[in-house]
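Figure caption, in words: inputs first, then the predicted bound structure.
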Amino acid sequence: MSTASLDVASARAAFPALSDSYIYADNAGGSQCLGSVASRLTDYLLHTNVQLGADYSVSVASTKRVAEGVEAARKLLNAASVEEVAFGGSSSLVAENIARALEGDVLEGEEIIVTGEHETNAGPWKKLAARRGLTIKFWHATQYPESPNNTYAVGLRLETLLPLITAKTRLIAFTACSNILGSIVPVQEIVKAIKAKAKEVGVRKVETVVDCVAYAPHRRIDVQAWDVDYAFFSVYKVYGAHISVLYTKLDSLKTSLSPLTHHFLPYDLTSLKLQPGGPGYELVYSTTAVPDYFQSLTPAGTIEAAFAAIAQHEQTLLQPLLTYLKSKEGRGVRIVGDENAGLSRVPTVSFVVVGPQRLDSRAIVKIFDQAGNIGIRYGHFYAWTLIDSLQPKIDHDDSVVRISLVHYNTVQEVEKIIELLEKALA
Ligand SMILES: Cc1ncc(COP(=O)(O)O)c(C=O)c1O
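Bound structure (pyridoxal-5'-phosphate present):
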């Protein structure tokens, strides 16, 4: 099946913020918001802003709208049922909610494996382990053999995960894509391998929780094909408003989690048990515009086709950027992450400048800030442990320069970014 190409101009036209020449290149921090998301959000607040679940007509309308928002999130996750979908204020909050709800179903002495990626999918597990006497183990990103000359060319690899799994492993928490390295983790393959290893070593019960925040703007999430137990992403990074979506497999809802809600609410078999209080209803309803947007992007009208076109276009942004940065190796530029373009990578590109002509990441970003019409950023982006694991050491406060592009960025914008990099590295 051939992939329809993305009409970038019409994709951009859906975002009012992209009507001027500003270059948004900090999208892994937060994407621009669809005009249709803002319209639905406003419409909810102005016309259906009442409490849900009553029999009067406006409440019936608002209840229906919120249900449509849940269905939109189900579509984005490709979950089997809306019962498996909950919302929360942020991904950090929904991850903490899972950890709280799981507290009664872990045993002292069991083990949780986390990565050094964004702390959202590590912090709640470290705190749960401290509360309940579990051990934390780290699945660290390690150097790609194909990049022997760059110790910062690292990624999460299955062969380093498998030896960490023992009969005591209870939970494995990892990212579907790194918000610094840009590399995609093959979730389906990893979950399959985890289950096989768990069976081999005789694990009591193992579950997986996948942070899809840096993945969701670039690739189709498919919780059913992946066979994960928990997954979450932030809608404000997928062209929507500031709210997050949580997937919980029905089996885990039934057997692993205690409700976080009031004792008299009948939510025991739905993900609402992980949703204490109502999320912003207008935000939930506004999420309906996100799958509609993806479905409008290609003639096939499916989310799958949209992401295939997005992935293809994003490679045209990634390729020149990586090629340029690699050409500056002699100047001390080191890509932090996979050095090679390809579909296992998204255009989130991080680098440092080392050696005799070392440059602070903040000094490089300053050149961009001074240009005035472009947004990029430096820092550890909350993947503090990942930065800490890099050798030779990198100063946490300065960390890496990150340029993070998405499908609405253009090849011309990448050319401008390269011009500024040339100036910064002169
Ligand atoms: C990979 C990843 N996980 C989690 C988060 C946190 O998301 P939220 O701000 O919704 O808590 C971020 C935000 O940058 C992220 O990039």
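The domain at 8-32+302-425 is CATH 3.90.1150.10 (Aspartate Aminotransferase, domain 1).
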